[in-house]
Amino acid sequence: MKKFIIPLLAALLPLDAALAADQKVLFQVSEGSEASWNLTLNNVKNVQAALGRDRVDVEIVAYGPGIGMLKAESLAGNRVADAMAAGVKVVACENTMKGQKLERADMLTGVDYVPAGVIEIMERQKQGWAYVRP
Fold this sequence. Notes:
This protein has 134 residues and is α/β, with parallel strands linked by helices. Helices cover 47% and strands 19% of the residues.
């Protein structure tokens, strides 16, 4: 019996890993409250814990009032840095930055940039990413 079960399990494990590795989730941050930022970061941490951080791609897109989450002096700055260290891609909307007269030097180290946050969300959804707006 063992000689049949072990090869069967071995054959199923790579399939399971392949399916899980294809998971991609995008979080939108467009509110300026610290509570909203923390909710997003908690959701991100929970997704990575549930699926395994190496088995899911996670991206946070901040624009509008949510851009404050990514400023160097942000109250959520340490948590954002922890998320990036855990493999989360964090992007700032350059349209919002221009509107708020922010420079890259004003932002947390390690943040990526996109010309338009809303377009980034649209593109990711077309690519099959799950979309969450906490």
